[in-house]
Amino acid sequence: MLKEGDLAPRFELPDAEMEMVSLDSFLGKHAVVVFFYVKDDTPGCTIEAIDFSELEDAFRRHDTIVLGISRDDCLSHGAFRDKHGLDLELLSDVDGQACSDYGVLVERDFDGMRKQCVRRSTFVLDREGRVHRAMYGVSPRGHALEILNVVKGMK
Asked: Cα(144)–Cα(106) distance, rounded to whole angstroms?
């Protein structure tokens, strides 16, 4: 698990348009919020994504980029974004490498079978790419506003 002060693992992942997005492209210029969510178009993840999207302008005013990551593919992200009018980058981590690097993969029982899935988690990274805040197992409702307040409090 990552903690405050750790150097955030780097990633380069495709977005809903299948364009590669690299964490490194934002560092030195912006703070970055990376939120990991379970699955496109599920109730909790939809609430969380809509909330982050609605606050996107506020994050930008604080010079912060918001990136959402799940293991869904790019086509799923595009459909999810378009269905809900989301205004944020959704990145596809199909192989789960970024999820693993950030420590958000957990095993759960589904109908008697063990399955690896994403634990809803959020990381606030400073401009140098260090973890300012790491939150694992978050609740979706009101979480985006909570993270905006963390960003507002950053030096």
From this structure: 22
User: Which tokens go with 42?
Assistant: 């599920």
Instruction: List the beta strands (DSSP E) in the chain.
Output: 12-14, 20-22, 31-36, 64-70, 89-92, 105-110, 113-118, 121-125, 131-136
How far apart, in whole angstroms, are the C-alpha atoms of residue 57 and residue 141? 19
Q: How confident is the model over 93-98, as a mean pLDDT?
A: 97
Domain boundaries, the chain: 12-152
Average of per-residue pLDDT across 12-33: 97
CATH number of this structure's domain 12-152: 3.40.30.10
pLDDT of residue 68: 98
Q: Is 45 a catalytic residue?
A: yes
Instruction: Give the alpha-carbon dihedral of 2, 119, 56, 142, to 10 degrees.
Output: -110
Which one from 45, 74, 99, 117 is the annotated catalytic residue? 45
Dist CA 4 CA 124 (whole Å): 9
